[in-house]
Design brief:
Length: 259
């Protein structure tokens, strides 16, 4: 812990849990990952967060239990969750956060499952609130909303803010009266999605609301990459998508160049 910057530097599962415990007493503590973290077989208790969490291009594997944060009032960036197993009865459920109240950028969920039972469930965020932002994110997780709540989506269960240059390829399912969308399940009129692409089992990119998304696959992910990068440039955001040449490129066709 560096008191001058109010920042934990974390390189182990033990350190990550120590940071979370400190945040439960003071949500403003920043965190920077210095290594990939393996949380397999460790239960995670969600936190309300106000600081800046910088994954620094690292991964957290096997996060199990609650969302990484229940509510994010700060910034979460440069983080990849690998094969999370998220299952929560909270009102809003997402792998990165239940409710985004500020900014999530360059965060990715690779494989795994996200299950919710109340209002909204999403791969990245259960709900993206008004005036709040999700930029340059992706999810290949399987999203399941098992109740009759509002929305289920690959990026956000409900979008009231801005989702920019994101994509999702995981399957999304919902119970009765649930709005299901590959990017967002439910989107209010003031919600915006720009240059967002998807594949998977969902019939639409946005389950209910204005759908500005485009279905990916069929060889047009390169077109998607250029459109997403143009949107990021237009907003003055430095992240850039590039083609993924790894073994998981079929489900995860694009990655951020600086990951």
């Amino acid at each position: 812990y560096d008191a001058s910057t109010n920042t934990y530097t974390v390189s182990s599962a033990k350190g990550l849990k120590a940071w979370a415990k400190a945040v439960s007493n003071n949500g403003y503590i920043n965190c920077t990952l210095a290594a990939d973290i393996n949380m397999t077989d460790r239960e995670w208790e969600s936190i309300t967060y106000y600081g800046t969490f910088d994954g620094n291009g690292h991964t957290i594997t096997g996060l199990k239990g609650d969302c990484f944060t229940s509510r994010n009032f700060g910034t979460i960036k440069n983080l990849t969750l690998v094969r999370p197993d998220i299952e929560s009865t909270d009102m809003h459920v997402g792998a990165i956060t239940g409710a985004n109240m500020n900014l999530i950028e360059n965060c990715h969920v690779v494989g795994g499952t996200v299950k919710g039972f109340s209002s909204n469930t999403g791969g990245i965020a259960g709900i993206n609130n008004s005036n709040d932002r999700i930029y340059a994110c992706s999810s290949t997780a399987e999203v399941t909303h098992q109740s009759s709540g509002q929305g289920a989506g690959g990026i956000a269960g409900c979008n009231l803010g801005t989702i920019l240059a994101c994509y999702a390829t995981g399957n999304v399912t919902g119970g009765s009266y649930v709005n299901v969308g590959a990017i967002a399940g439910y989107q209010r009129d003031d919600g915006i999605q720009t240059a967002c692409y998807w594949s998977g089992n969902a019939a639409k990119g946005v389950g209910s609301g204005t759908d500005g998304t485009t279905k990916g696959g069929d060889g047009n992910w390169t077109t998607a990459m250029y459109a997403m990068n143009t949107a990021l440039t237009n907003e003055g955001i430095s992240y850039r998508w590039t083609e993924n040449n790894g073994e998981d490129k079929e489900s995860r066709p694009l990655i951020i160049a600086t990951e």
